[in-house]
Amino acid sequence: MRVALVTMKTGHYDDSDGRHRFERVARHLAGRGHDVTVFCAQWWDTFEDRVERDGVAYRAVAEAPEVGSFTTRLPGLLARERPDVIHARPDPPAAVQAASVGRRLARAPLVAEWYGDEPIEEARLFERAAALPDAVVTPSELVRTAVREVGAAGEDTHVIPESIDRSTIRSVEPADEIDVVYSHRLDETANAGSLLLGLAELRDRDWSATIVGDGPQRGSYERQAADLRIDDRITFAGACDTERRVAVYKGAHAFVQTASRASFATELLRGLACGCVGIVEYQAESSAHELIREHERSFRVTDPQGVAEAIVDAGQFDRMTVDEDWRDYDHDAVLEQYLDVYRDVVDDYGLF
Questions:
Q1: pLDDT tens across 290-305, in order?
Q2: What CATH architecture does domain 2-163+331-348 belong to?
Q3: Which string of b and e fits 240-256 if b means at least 16 CB within 10 Å?
């Protein structure tokens, strides 16, 4: 299948979860033998208008991420590419509108990827970008609801979760055993204080915890742990690579998720796949609770007291280092969900 992916900015310009997911899908499609071209602003230093990395072709639509030049040139380039399907990000939303013009010229259906971390612009622009595609993909029901509220047709929206590499989870050796692990960038959305307050409720019990992540709020959380007189039992591990995080999760009994915002709780998913008992504090702007809705080894709570009680109650579950219940979140399984969407829109597509 010939797939054209449209994103004005790649990860070379802007570091975001949605961008990383989009480019990961491109690499996985190429790895499965599909012909993949990413239409983007140029990020490479040579004068070529096309380069290849990891089996993916990157086609420069503009020399810099400037909306006007990008959206003006995109339709013609898509027409010349003649893909079987066009897959675009609404960042900016005008890129989806330009891709929609391109689909008419190329006679190909359009899928939009809506992650939930796209910058908010004028509401009418997002409304149009949500209504134009033949299908919209989101990582969670939380984001799906938001997209439907701005104009996407319900029957055309699809939830495709983030994916993980289960081969890494199976192969990595567990780190030393601990009772609780937390993992998130320590920024304004981390809400790690809720975990610390919960742990403080258990001051008289024997436990150990590791906080994975770094960021501008790390110092404040370290001070809070000291003020609560529990800092001697908490390890602040900092930013760890994926293999180190997996090792820590495999050594932990429970994974506590308290972050106030998450389009998809990827680290929670890794923790669950590593056998952790999931403890999720409900947050209105987080989809984390969706992951454990039907998972037996889990608890949903609403406050630090609930976190503390769930940590104690997690003792009813045996320790595990791999949980096969999460096999459907492997990279290959999730990629197949994307291909199902592509096949459906190609089958349903008619000439305009």
A1: 999 999 999 999 999 9
A2: 3-Layer(aba) Sandwich (3.40)
A3: beeeebbbbbbbbbbbb
